[in-house]
Each structure stands twice: as C-alpha cells, then as structure tokens.
Amino acid sequence: MPGKTPDKEPVDNAGYRGGNKMKGKAGKKGEDEKMTVVVPPSKKKDVEGDVAMDVDEKVEEENVGEKTVADIKGNFALLDRAVALFDARFTLRALRSVSSIRKRLTPDILAQAISETYTSTSPGAEIAAGLLKVIGKEGVPLGGGKAGIEMEIDSEPSSKSPQKNGSKKEQKEIAPEIDVFFGILTQVLLHDSKQWQQGLDFSRFLIDKIQALNRRTLDSLSAKVYFYYELFAEQLAPLPPSSQSSIVAIRPVLLAALRTAVLRKDTDTQASVIVLLLRNYLLTSHISQADLLVSHTQFPENAANNQVARYLYYLGKVRAIQLLYTEAHNHLTAATRKAPSSACAVGFSQTATKLLLVVELLMGDIPDRATFRQPTMEAALHPYFLLVKAVRVGDLGEFERIVAQHGDAFRRDGTYTLILRLRQNVIKTGIRMMSLSYSRISLRDICIRLHLGSEESAEYIVAKAIRDGVIEASLDREKGYMKSKEVGDVYATREPGETFHDRIRACLGLHDESVKAMRFPMNQHRLELKNAQEAREREREMAKEIQEGDLDEDDLGGEFEGM
C-alpha cells in the first residue's frame, strides 16, 4: 500500500542492523525462529598459531645468526687496518668484541662465518678445514653464502675491467691475523662446551702456528691464545694442586714462550705469560718458584691495565704467604685500584678485596666498615665481616666458631691458611683491648678472658706483645700482673706525618702510572715534521720560480698570498 511504512531493518543479536539480510532457505519457515550459534575455535587455528610461532622463532634465530656472522666479519677490517698501520689498538678493539660475540656463538654460526670467509681455492683452505673439523662441522663446504658468490663473480675473466681481477686477488688473500682470530673463537667455543682435552690439543696447534709465523701484529692475539691454553690445562684431571696435573706439563711451553717474547720485545705476550706462570705456580703451591720467577723477570711497564692488576694480585698473594705483609698490602691495594669498574670484573675485585682484608688483619689493622657496605661486595664479604668483628673484639671463641662455620668458603677463596694465622692476632688484639681498659690486670684474668690453657701461656703471649710493640705495658712476673703505661698524644709522634707521606706517595705514583698509560699514534710527530718540511720546500721552489719569471700570480691562482 502506498501509505504503509516500510519495515525496519532486522537487528541481529549483536545489535547491528542489517544482520539478517542474507538468509538461507531455512529463513523462509519463519522470522520468529532465530538461533545464535557459538562456534568454538577450531584446532586448525591452534596448529596454524603454533606453526606461526615456530616460524617466528626460526626467523629470529636466523636474524641473530646473521648478525653474529656480520659482527665476526666486521672485525676483519680492524685486523687488516692493524696490519697496514702496524697499530695494536685495532687488534685490541677486535678482541674486545669477543665477549659480546661469545654469548651468541654456536658451532653453526662459526661454521657459517668460516664458510663465507674462505674458499676452496684460497691459501687458507687447509686452516679453514681444520677449524671446521675441530668444531664438528667438517661437512660444511667452503665458499658458501654471499661472500662465495661475490668471489665467483669476480673470478670471471673480463678484459674490460682489469680492476675487477685485482679485487679478486685482494679478496682471496686472507691475513694470518684473521686465521688466528678464528682460532680464538674456536677456543672460546670449546671452552664453553667443556671440551677440555680437545681444546688443549687445538691450543697447542695454534701456538705452533703463531710461533712459525713470527709476526709482530700477532702479539695481542697470541697473548689471548696462551690464556685459553692455561685454562684448558687447569680443567683436566687430575686437578691442581696435584703434581700430576696438566698445568705442570705445560710449564716448559710457557717458559719458552716467555723467553721468546722477551727477545722479540713482545709486551702483550710477555705480560700475559708472566701472569699465567704465577697463577700456575700458586695453584700447585710452588711459592719458591713463583718468587724466583718474579726476581728473575721484569714485568713490562707499558702492559695492559688488566694484566697489571692480575700481576699485582698474584704478587701480593706470594708476598702474603712469605709473611711480607707490608709489601703484600701495597700490591693488593694497587690491584684493587687498577681493577676495572665494569660489571664483568666484579669477581676479580671481590677476590682481591678478600685477600686484602685478611692481609690487613694480619698487619694488626682493622678494615674500614664502608668496604663491606658496597652493593657488589656485601654478600661476598659477609663471612669476612664476621671475621673482622671477632678479631676487632679479640674474642678467640667467636673467631674459632666463625672459622669452623665458613671454612669451606675460605678454602674456596684460597685464604684459609692465612686466616689460621690470625689466631695470634686475635690474642694480641684482646691483650691490647685489656691494656686500654685496665691499668693493671692479673695474668689469671687474661688467661680466663682469652681462653688460654695456662698462666704461663698468657705470660709468654703478653711478653711477646710488649716486645713487638703491640701494647705499651710492663710485666711483673713475681706478682703476676701486667701494668699498662699511660697513652700519650698520638699527634706528638711521627705516625701522622708518616701516614700523610704514604698517601702523597700513592697519589704521585698513580699520577705517573696514568701518564705512562696514555697512548698516542706511533711516529705522528715525524709525520707532522715531514709535512712541514715539504711545505717549506714548496714555498722555496715557488718563490724561486717567481723570481726567475717562470710563474706569475695568475698561474698561482691567488694561493700564494694565502701561503
């Protein structure tokens, strides 16, 4: 009918109009019969989701692998530049990147990098095949990937582009520094996978190759090779301090390397091998041999800061075992100051600080409480904090209880034997506290307070403390008591001046070492003198030609006035 209003659009259950425009045959039976069907998610979607996640993970792994390979190959330019300019700083930059590459390094990634770097016809093909065999990827063909394709394209003969043939020759030539860099990455991979024997054999092969090459640009790389050579030997059974350990067998190799490094003036290898030999001797408790090594060798002054810190730590440990606590304290203090402040060197700082605290206690000093409040030191130094509290009070019973409770931690840190020497210091500290508290005290009370066996032991200990200058007192054997002397003003003595002098000397020594550590480009001043001399010669020639009439101002282009 013309006056009839049109029907409204049907509304579906979700509240949207036009929801029932598309109807099937079942809609003809009646508009009142409407159903809402909830379809559960099909398993096919889940499978597709899992497949998508797997694909994403694979893509992410491939991206990580490609980035790692690119990072490895990015160091080749630094190594080539180090060879061209004869500057070890570029080699050190390449070695610093090993720590970041190490977290992502796998046999597949290393094999891919080797395959893309070498070809089957390159001079280093035998070395590459040996590296692939060591990491268990001998089936990977050389010359694969993008690099292999580019080299095949360059190898096409073309008379129109002679420069292209020259570029092919440059790509084929691989520096020995790149071979050794791949060897270091192989050492890292074998060490992380705990293949100790295979790593030791491969390190020995790599050392022979470096010695045969005899290139000064390999000095920094060879130092790292010797470092892993020592680490592999330490992990092989029987473990140190057994005399049958592998570290005893590698000592002739390290000593020969030290002799060669000194003759070749190889500073990096010399510093690294000296540190490794000291570590080797200390692991087997050969203190006299370590002392002979220090006395017959001279540690290079311009060595890397990390090697200097390690050398000072081991030297301080040797001096502490030899009862030379003052020298040990100086060396360990310098080692803690030279330790890197980065998070990767926290372990070294903790180890050096633990030994320094024990040496300070053996010297009769009480460490500063702020040392134990550092965030990176608080948990590691907790047993030593309890030990310092017992020594400071002079409580012998508490000291023995702490040593028994935390003996395993002290043995693991290598300070247990030194801590056992603190028993006499605890007794001396207790006597000093009593001498400050009492003007007169009987030997019997001293014996009871210090848990000593007899009054005679107390008498001997008090007499030794008086002789060593620990306390200012006198001993009356007939009446059996100790009488303390009046304590004078410490500022009336020479002690404050000596302490101030020691601090000034330490600051001046730190300044001198900082100046020595500054590095500048080699022969840069000669290059500047050469350029200045050439400029003066050009000026003389141009002035002479102007005088003779061969040149005028138009020929010079107005540049002579600026000169």
Verbal overview:
The protein is mostly helical and 563 residues long. The protein has a domain at 56-153 and 164-236. 66% of the residues lie in helices and 2% in strands. It is built from 28 helices and 3 strands. It has helices spanning 43-85, 88-96, 98-102, 107-117, 125-134, 145-154, 162-172, 176-192, 196-213, 219-235, 246-249, 251-264, 267-283, 287-296, 305-321, 325-338, 346-362, 382-393, 396-405, 407-413, 416-420, 422-437, 443-449, 455-467, 495-517, 524-548, 553-556, 559-562, and strands at residues 440-442, 473-476, 481-484. A 3-stranded antiparallel β-sheet has the order 1-3-2. The protein is globular, with a radius of gyration of 38 Å. It starts with 42 loop residues before the first helix and ends with a helix. 28% of the residues are buried. The model is unreliable at 1-34, 146-170 and 556-563 (pLDDT under 50). One of its GO terms (molecular function) is enzyme regulator activity. This is Proteasome regulatory subunit C-terminal-domain-containing protein. Residues 156-165 have a biased composition (Polar residues).
